[in-house]
Amino acid sequence: MAALNPSDIINAGEHVFIKMPSDNVKCIVLKAGSSVSLGKFGTFKANDIIGHAWGNSYEIYDRDSKTRVYHPEGISEVEETANNNREIVDDPSSQKLTLDDIKALKSEGLKGELTGEEIVNKLKESHATFDKKTAYSQAKYLQKKGKKFHKVFTPIKPTAYSVNEYFYVKNPAKIRDIRMDTLSQLLSYSNVHSGCKLLVVDDTQGMIVSALAERMGGKGTILGLYDGDNPHYDIVKYMNFNQETLDTIKVLSWLRIHRPADEKTPDEMQDVTQLTGKDLEGYHRRLKAYNIVEESRKTLFEGNFDALIVASQYQPESILEKLLPYVAGSRPIIVYHGTKEALLETSTWMRKCPDLLAPQLTESWLRKSQVLPGRTHPEMSTWGTGGSLLTATKVIDQPVQAALTKRERLAMEKKNAEAKKLKRAREEAESAAPSPAPVVSAEDATNVAIEEEEVIMTTTITTTTSTSTIEPIDDDNESRSVKRVKQE
Amino acid sequence: MSLATQHTFATYKKNNTIEEGDLVSKENVILIRIQADSEFCCKFGNYKHSDMIGLQYGTKLGSNTGRGFLFLLYPTPELWTLILPHRTQILYIADISLIMSFLDLKPGRVMIESGTGSGSFSHSIARTIAPGGHLFTFEYHQDRVAIATKEFEEHGLKDLVTIECRDVCKNGFGLENKADA
């Protein structure tokens, strides 16, 4: 049932994104009773929006910064006129209002005397050549002025999508350039769902951990391995997670996976009975910290993780080597990096690794378009890379008696037949006289073992000839079938 | 053959071993249901289902004829999207994942989908909103509804998905105040 979640309304004390008419987004913590300043767009009272549902825009009006819900005009078809720019000269004197006049209008707007729309209308009326513009140009002019003078803001709820967009625009280096399309594909490939157990190495300041935790809905575990003293999962705080969800995120430092020499167990710590006051408090704090680390260690060593996700500044192979044993069979391994070149070596390593199936390197393209009646087209400036993903499936390799070419198969069958014959002869000899049997069987055993090894090596070599190319994600060809190598 | 275990695409099994009645994907091609007496024959060899029972998911299994091997994988919505029989054009992972993020889908959400089609997107949604959420999906083509219903049932998604044969453009959804997306 779609019951009203606490996250469906704006709550006090939470992070909120405010989108302003200039399309800039500001991030604030909404304190009850405070006034929020939006610079040249005015100020509004936090209490006016606390408790409201998400999705509305608000207009600041009147002298004491009242807010009301703003209903934007519907986008209507723009009728083409016969106008063109033949006689339009780009001349600052086209606008009859002086800079001072406009400043005055602006301050009146801030005081609440005029609405944004009224200011824009005044500008339009004192524009000498406005009527000569084409209809599209007029619409564009009004929109541009509106971005400067409208006092409308939109609160945006922080979700993995909006938080990622905010940081991708404001500070992409912080999240290692991971863009929403790449991040969402990472979520799909990892098959993250409520109740699963994930092993993550996240150097994107917690962007990936936040997105995973959101999709797990408070059930399951994420174990984040980090470097140094602090995991630096800064982004988690923007998501406004409840305590249940935060509890699913566990962390463990690489340095503490095995107990370092200087770490004391509770037994080695000071004798409890002799402590009082502050010392006792200190002891309990240290004990609590120790227990948290012990629990994280236990989670790691239990293994059987449902996915391994690596987004690290370090060379991925070294991390994969250490962590692959902890992942269960038939589970995804995903490596993210800002550039695909960094993943090329890793993909070669993966192809040689017998525990990984079908590595695939992908990079995704995302293009923004302007959508307006009659003027829908891709935007003029495009985004750069959104990062690349290298995915594979963990499998349980086994020595398999498989020969893939006819010649190999016949050779193997012949050897198997001989082995069987010897075995039968041995059994008959056993039923007649038991003693000579052991010597003969030892030899056979060695022979059979060698044959198996030979066959296995052939198999492994043929497997790695399967191709894994870099392809744009809009292809659906992912043929990874084992190819037979013709040996002649 | 009985659906003895609670086998579903929406989540993994606890012990990660193959038991009778489970669905198993061979690498890249087929979804098969394990039955004790069956055999699975393909160009990579012959495989007895009974050989598979008791193995961990992800195991590489050699063929009985000595020719070839295959990997036994757990079925996931992503694999299903790649191998399902197309009755209509389907959505692939790139679009599915971006839409799910844009709609803020997570466990407990209720969603409406119009145009079930071949059910590719539906499987991914069901996995993401489980447990506690629900997907109301609508399709106006009778036969596709029948096939999709059967698939949802076989894949253990019956409790998460309600499919209805309805033309929503003409007749609406028939739901009030229910959905989050």
TrEMBL record, chain A:
Superkingdom in the source lineage: Eukaryota
Location in the cell: Nucleus
Compositionally skewed regions (Basic and acidic residues) per UniProt: 415-429, 478-488
Record-level GO BP terms: tRNA methylation
Nucleus found in the keyword field: yes
Pfam family, any one: Gcd10p
Signal peptide segment: none
Entry's Gene Ontology cellular component terms: nucleus; tRNA (m1A) methyltransferase complex
Keyword Ribonucleoprotein appears in the UniProt entry: no
InterPro entries: TRM6
Region of interest (Disordered), ranges: 415-444, 460-488
Subunit text: Heterotetramer.
UniProt xrefs under PANTHER family: TRANSLATION INITIATION FACTOR EIF3-RELATED, TRNA (ADENINE(58)-N(1))-METHYLTRANSFERASE NON-CATALYTIC SUBUNIT TRM6
Family to which this protein belongs: Belongs to the TRM6/GCD10 family.
Protein's job: Substrate-binding subunit of tRNA (adenine-N1-)-methyltransferase, which catalyzes the formation of N1-methyladenine at position 58 (m1A58) in initiator methionyl-tRNA.
Descriptive protein name: tRNA (adenine(58)-N(1))-methyltransferase non-catalytic subunit TRM6
Source species of the chain: Linnemannia exigua
Gene name for this UniProt entry: TRM6
UniProtKB/TrEMBL annotation, chain B:
A Pfam entry, by short name: GCD14
Coiled-coil regions, chain positions: none
Principal place of residence: nucleus
Sorted UniProt keywords: Methyltransferase, Nucleus, S-adenosyl-L-methionine, Transferase, tRNA processing
Name of the molecule in the record: tRNA (adenine(58)-N(1))-methyltransferase catalytic subunit TRM61
GO biological process: tRNA methylation
GO cellular component: nucleus; tRNA (m1A) methyltransferase complex
InterPro entries, sorted: SAM-dependent_MTases_sf, TRM61_C, tRNA_MeTrfase_Gcd14
EC number: 2.1.1.220
PROSITE patterns assigned: SAM_TRM61
Limits of the tRNA (adenine(58)-N(1))-methyltransferase catalytic subunit TRM61 C-terminal domain: 68-181
